[in-house]
From TrEMBL:
Assigned protein family: In the N-terminal section; belongs to the PINc/VapC protein family.
Species of provenance: Paenibacillus methanolicus
Single GO cellular component term: cytosol
Top-level lineage group: Bacteria
Entry-linked Pfam families: PhoH, PIN_4
Domain PIN: start-end pairs: 3-135
UniProt keyword terms in alphabetical order: ATP-binding, Nucleotide-binding
The protein's name in its UniProt record: PhoH-like ATPase
UniProt GO MF annotations: ATP binding
Length: 443
């Protein structure tokens, strides 16, 4: 039986196409949602862009009829802007204040009560990305769900970039003899992806093992090309870091994604690889480092000074790693070094739209705070001969409408895992300090 889905404002601000994600069911947008969208449309960020997209979309649909009477959707459903279900009495008994969230809850509750009076009542579902709204709905006896249509994969199934296989010791011996293995010969039940790493371990329990990488055509398992020599003074401390460096230093892989908890070495490894490629090998003309300007906690507001001075607090984590790599002793030395080199540029992502970036090694830090649209905008800026590295921790998101699965970093990891031009690695072991690792695990 068809259902009625009542959409919260945050669903449309997260995905303007959400109204088409409910098949042949009825989609209801409370009038207060339009008011909230109108208040956001002048913002210059992603939320403002989505608010304007929703406004244009609804305006275009007016050609098919009156929104309050119902507009047919391409999936067979109906879209309705609700004006009449605004009785607040029952919700007010529970929560008192006439806030916008409670007005949306009132619409859903009144729909539910009306359906219960029918001989064949339809299910009424409130869809919201706000956890507290879903909790309030549950208190009222309403069915409430998160918006899941934009999730490309379940959290437990996110691609990790490597897999451990337990095989007969003769298979490991064969690899060391011939320096490759055919994927078909392993008769695996799981599919391997191009540039995915394989750790072979002896199923008999001995210490015999091997570290391999799937070839770009996906047909062979090959040895890692790089030894564990230092890269710009940095040596891999665990297997995942070594795999990450293999991807970062491979010029045939223009897109690399790195995920992991704080202190696993994502930024340091990427910067070391970038400096090696730009300053030592001269493979790229410039090292461009950028990160989104999304605060953790309360925003510090407007800052005085020129652009570089305004950006410095946001970019300080990058400078901290650069100071470590260049082994600077005094405050301000890193600025002199960067000014002297001229080939290293640190920027905020605010200024990347509209650019074409050829021949550069590009590092995007804190990419978990980017939406799918923002990631598409960034990667589509990459010009001929450039390499881009996106990294972050999907568990540390400061964006109000993103989570560990719906963010742009996870999205690009899953969408590109089949492509020979990309590689991914999940770093698991913290190497910053024992205290940092304990904090990441226990807190």
């Amino acid at each position: 039986m068809k259902k009625i889905f009542v959409l919260d404002t945050n669903v449309l601000l997260h995905d303007p196409q959400a109204i088409f994600a409910f098949d042949d069911n009825e989609v209801v947008i409370p009038a207060v949602v339009l008011e909230e969208i109108d208040s956001k449309k002048r913002l210059a960020d992603e939320i403002g862009r989505n608010a304007r997209s929703v406004s244009r979309l609804l305006d275009g649909m007016r050609e098919d009829g009156h929104l309050h009477e119902g507009i047919p959707l391409r999936g067979g459903g109906v879209l309705r802007v609700e004006l009449n279900h605004r009785s607040f009495v029952r919700v007010q008994e529970m929560f008192g204040e006439m806030s916008n969230d409670n007005r949306i809850l009132a619409v859903a509750l009144n729909y539910y009560l009306e359906e219960q009076e029918k001989t064949e009542p339809r299910d009424v579902v409130l869809v919201s990305k706000d956890v507290l709204v879903r909790i309030k709905a549950d208190v009222l006896g309403l069915d409430a769900q998160d918006y899941l249509s934009d999730r490309i994969v379940q959290h437990s199934e996110v691609y990790g970039g490597y897999v451990t296989l337990f095989v007969h010791p003769s298979v490991i011996d064969e690899f060391y003899t011939y320096r490759f293995l055919a994927v078909k010969a392993l008769q695996l039940t799981t599919k391997l992806h191009p540039n995915e790493f394989i750790i072979l371990r002896d199923e008999m329990g001995t210490s015999k093992s091997a570290l391999l990488k799937v070839s770009q055509d996906g047909a062979r398992l090959e040895p890692l090309y790089l030894s564990n020599d230092p890269v710009w003074g940095i040596t891999a401390r665990n297997a995942q870091q070594r795999m990450a460096l293999e991807l970062l230093l491979n010029d045939d892989i223009p897109l690399v994604t790195l995920t992991g908890k704080a202190g696993t070495g994502k930024t340091l490894l990427a910067l070391a690889a970038g400096l090696s490629k730009v300053e030592d090998e001269h493979k790229y003309k410039k090292l461009l480092i950028a990160r989104p300007v999304v605060p953790m906690g309360k925003d510090i507001g407007y800052l005085p000074g020129e652009k570089e001075e305004k950006l410095r607090p946001w970019m300080q984590p990058i400078y901290d790693n650069l100071e470590y790599l260049f082994d600077t002793k005094k405050s301000g030395d890193i600025d002199k070094i960067l000014m002297g080199l001229g080939s290293i540029q640190v920027e905020a992502l605010t200024y990347i739209r509209g650019r074409s970036i050829p021949g550069q090694f590009i590092i995007i830090d804190e990419a978990q705070n980017l939406s799918r649209h923002e990631v598409k905008t960034i990667v589509s800026r990459v010009g001929e001969g450039s390499k881009i590295v996106l990294m972050g921790d999907p568990e540390q998101i400061d964006h109000p409408y993103l989570d560990a699965v719906s963010n742009g970093l996870t999205h690009i990891v899953e969408r590109f895992k089949q492509e020979s031009s990309s590689g991914h690695m999940t770093l698991e072991k913290g190497e910053r300090s024992k205290l940092a690792q304990l904090a990441a695990d226990l807190l």
